[in-house]
Amino acid sequence: MDYCKLNIMKTRNILMLFIGVLAFCSCDDMFVPADENNRQTEDMTEESKYANGLLMYAYDRLPYQTVTVTDVATDDAVTNVKNSNYLYMATGSWSADNNPMSQWDNCRDGIQYVNLFLSIVEDVKWAPSAVSKQQMFVDRLKGEALGLRALFYYYLLQAHGGYADDGKLYGVPLLTKPEDGSSDFNQPRALFADCVKQCFADCDSAMALLPFDYVDVDTISEIPTKYLNLGAQKTGYNLVFGARSSGLFSGKVAEALKAQIAVLAASPAFRDDSGVSSEDAAALCAAVLKRIGGMAGFDKTGNIWYKNKTKLEPGAAEMPEILWREGRSGKDSRQELTNFPPSLYGNGEVNPSQNLVDAFPMRSGLPISDPNSGYDPNDPYANRDPRLADNVLYNGTVFRKAQIITGNYPSDDKETEDSLNATDKSTRTGYYLKKLLRDDVNPLASNQIAQYHIFPRIRYTEIFLDYAEAANDAWGPKLDPKGFGFTAYDIIKAIRERAGLGTDAIGMPLPQGDAYLEACAANQAQMTTLIRNERRLELCFENKRFWDMRRWMLPLNESVKGMRINRDETTKALSYSIFIVEDRNFDSSYQWYGPIPKSEVLKWSKLVQNKGWK
Fold first, then answer.
1. Nearest Cα to Cα of residue 156 among 148, 168, 164
2. For the CA atoms of 69, 72, 77, 78, what is the dihedral angle to 10 degrees?
3. Which of 128, 202, 424, 535 has an alpha carbon within 20 to 30 A of 511's alpha carbon?
4. Which 8-state DSSP code applies to residue 177?
């Protein structure tokens, strides 16, 4: 809810008063004297708004991206921004001292703020005149902080966990106490498995302290006995744990985060030494999904949640697809300005790749490489998976009542600026981004039409895909030995049915159904490939692909391709040719694991680097 973001903004000025004292630093002389620190701590315990500022500042460090960023460093897209750090990285400049994927500073700062908050939370006078409110505030705020700490460590493990030259799988330094001027900053990296254990413990503690969701209670009988015994009343309980806190870290979020951490740890890149199995990960994902009734809770419009304009408006009911999200923005047009084609007054910065376009199957469900698929290279967008048209603007697409021409030929007797490489704002691949963009926005400054947007942090589709991946790894496509009530096959079938696969050109079911799914369901390895491809399509442009490729240990150097389209001006027939847009320069011998920042390794002798990074 916007409440969380509003509080962050309100506390920003407060934080600036003592940020030099409280911020995470790595040098002793950056801290003020201890007596000044003590005075500030006393101030915070007496004035709750100061203490709450610490937690709000931790929220402000949440590492979620709200726009498409990292996909341009994968095989899914390129960018037309010539000085992009992600372009430099993907073409050979990724190093330990040049890492746009780093989470080191941001998440370590977040952990420091959380640890500082945890060190004082029980002493702060949140509601000193009411015992029940005081305890409820302590529990909620402590639960939020513990959950946030687990989240920050999750992102650190994803970005910086890896094998060192000694053959051990490391995470990051494990800190559960705040650092100050007397701290020893030369801390070794903890084992990856120990970091995971700490994340799990923090998630469990958060779940024990927090409500599953922030909703108002209607009767006193709904209040937990612990607080009733302290004299809690309905108004007080709703003040602390009710709907006004919606959007803050909750028990539901902690449960989902724990499942995501387990899926990372059980992935091929980490599973040998993480202490987490695919069975463990599947069970944790299933717990999240059973809360919404398993397959009964699968949102049949969840893949196009961003098109549900009425649900994007303030005051609208929450979408069943979204487990946790950013606060709703004010009306803006920034995403559209960044990514609309130039003919629609955009900068066209994210260009989907031919690699990704080819990953979308035919409407029948068969991949385009299958000789029986009916794919026509002279009409490559016909009868394709409907998700292609939802996510990508390709040649001839009508968008905002305008036809987008990316081919190298005139449109209506004039050249189109949307054509391949026509201007510095034009596509480099023959495609523009469509996903996440509102077609009722006009980014032109002189006639701007802005609209509301929301940005999911965790979607249920991702958790369903997490379960499918883990369950297939553990037991195969169709087995459910733990009695969860659904299998990997059930989930992928639901996702493909939602997409409209297994149907003919007008959407009618084919006699053979989704034959490709059935063939994959008979072979665990084939099902793995299908699950990974479905995840790629469902989560494209949501900053997932970079991390998925590495945790799956996929080849990183696949050249990014585009589509060049020409027209015979006599016959008006179009011809299509695939070409290489950008060669990628990653090293799969070690770059499945990101580096520890070089500056940190040089400073601290106990901080070992991941293998291969200099």
1. 148
2. 120
3. 535
4. S
Tell me how far CA of residue 12 lies from CA of 16, 137, 279, in angstroms. 6, 21, 43
| pLDDT value of position 25 | 36
CA atoms in the 13 A half-sphere facing the CB of 611: 14
Measured between alpha carbons, how far is 596 from 189 in angstroms, rounded to an integer? 10
Q: Please write down the long-range contacts of 223-232, taking CB distance under 8 Å and 24 or more positions apart.
A: 226/135, 227/132, 227/135, 227/136, 230/131, 230/132, 230/135, 231/130, 231/131, 231/132, 232/132, 232/133, 232/136
pLDDT at 410: 77
Asked whether the beta carbons of 48 and 138 are under 8 A apart, the reply is: no
Half-sphere exposure of residue 191, counting CA atoms within 13 Å on the CB side?
A: 10
| pLDDT 10s digits, 290-312 | 999 999 999 999 999 999 999 99
According to DSSP H, which parts of 179-302 are helical? 192-209, 225-228, 234-241, 251-265, 271-274, 278-290
Crossing angle between the packed helical segments 48-60 and 2-22, to the nearest 10 degrees: 100
Q: Which of 176, 170, 188 is nearest to 150 (CA)?
A: 176
Residues in the chain: 614
The residues, ordered by sequence, that sit 6+ positions from 148 with a Cβ below 8 Å of its Cβ are 55, 58, 59, 62, 110, 114, 249
Residue ranges in the chain whose pLDDT is less than 50: 1-39, 413
Residue 424 DSSP SS3: coil
Rounded Cα–Cα distance for residues 361 and 387 (Å)? 9
Token representation of residue 43: 């101030």
Residue whose C-alpha is closest to residue 144's, from 93, 100, 207, 99: 207
CA dihedral (501, 507, 513, 515) in degrees, to 10, reads -40
Tell me what pLDDT residue 275 has. Answer: 98
| Sign of the four-CA dihedral 74, 78, 83, 88 | positive
Q: How far apart are CA 416 and CA 439, in angstroms?
A: 20
The pLDDT score that the predictor gives to residue 415 is 61
Domains and CATH numbers, the chain: 2-60+102-269+593-603 (1.25.40.890), 331-452+554-587 (no CATH)
Q: Are strands 402-403 and 398-399 parallel, antiparallel or unpaired?
A: antiparallel
Contact 440, 465 (CB under 8 A): no
